[in-house]
């Protein structure tokens, strides 16, 4: 029997930190919306939980994706709005790099998706993620990175009315390091804090004139180390009830911290119910740095 997740507080649905629902699993997601509930396995013990999905119990949906093409072409946004949901979007748009992200659409297509999302909802409901920042050494000894398209993406985001760029430096797990070696005889490099400060200062220099603020996701130790050196830099609250209510008005959200996130690393997110599954909904982007997909 599924464990109920009914509560007195309105629920925020997160779709999803665990996989890319807008790119690959919108049919499944819309089935849950139309039937009024999701049944979601706990990623640790497999126990099923029932997450209510009707707009009275769960009035807010926060989407996370690297490709909103299927979401947009399927007309899912207008249907969800007609049903009474408030929609917010995290859109990871990184530099074009088939080595790191082999299955995401071309950058030009993703920039077009930014404009379409901000035509669907208020621009304040869309956040751009340039994440993660990756540095790697190829077999010939060259040091590579994925910063090359930052200005182009930042310009497109600013023109669409987006005012925040969320970033972090890649955390390289052992399985990610093994995968990188197997795929292309490369190794990821974690720059020292002094180099990270240079990189972030350069990003601030490029984004600030566009009116786009730069925030760090789960980089508490780095922010502490930098101190006052980069005053324009802040900590991200990626899924903030204050953000949601600033866009859509008071909704009675709890504003309570999400204990299931990486709070020791600086995560300040508020409570949400993630309706994705690492195993049942395996992401097909096949990003080289991905830690989540058990098939990689």
| Biggest sheet details | 8 strands, parallel
Q: How many separate structural domains?
A: 1
Strand content: 15-25%
Decide which structural class fits the backbone.
alpha/beta
What is the residue-averaged pLDDT?
Answer: 93
CATH architecture: Alpha-Beta Barrel
- CATH topology type: TIM Barrel
Radius of gyration: 19 Å
User: Strand order within the widest sheet?
Assistant: 13-12-10-7-6-5-2-14
Q: Helical element count? A: 10
Number of strands: 14
Could you give a quick summary of the protein structure above?
With 296 residues, this protein is of the alpha/beta class. 31% of the residues lie in helices and 18% in strands.
If you had to describe this structure to a student in words, what would you say it looks like?
The chain is built from ten helices and 14 strands. The longest helix is centred in the last third of the chain and has 15 residues, at 193-207. By secondary structure, the protein is an alpha/beta fold. The chain has one domain: Alpha-Beta Barrel (TIM Barrel), CATH 3.20.20. The strands form three sheets. Strands 13-12-10-7-6-5-2-14 form an eight-stranded parallel β-sheet. The protein has a three-stranded mixed β-sheet with strand order 1-4-3. A three-stranded antiparallel β-sheet has the order 9-8-11. β8 (135-137) and β9 (143-145) form a beta hairpin.
